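WARN no homologs supplied; continuing
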Amino acid sequence: MAMDEMSLYLQATTKRAWFPKGQRPIVSIRPQRDCQHWYGALCLDSGQDAALSVPGLNGEMTCHFLSHLLTAFPSQPILLFLDRAPWYRGDAVRQLLADNPRLQLLYFPPSCPQLNPQEHVWKAARHAVSHNHTFPNLAALR
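OK structure emitted
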């Protein structure tokens, strides 16, 4: 599996868009910087994606998501490819790995997001949800 995280913000990201000639597209914006964080993992065999919204990106939330993966895939060993974010390497994560030997982590080289297939899932999600769109609150965004 390939794992990554992302944050979606209430403030719309503006992107190019097709629009009738002579008409100007309007994208409303909100001044808040509130956001919703997500962890996701893409199964490289089946294409199945597991995603979980979380309140923040830290070691505790990483362990929460890894536990979610262990529950979602209860019997098979899991080799998880991921980037080198600092919240993937704390004491809590090391303890969870020690307690669950069927879960192993393998880190991508530094600064190589193009190697992570989960990045393509996030790109499609952002395109569908946050580019040129705005939401009144985090619940609607989620």
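Residues 10 and 60 are 24 Å apart (CA to CA).
OK
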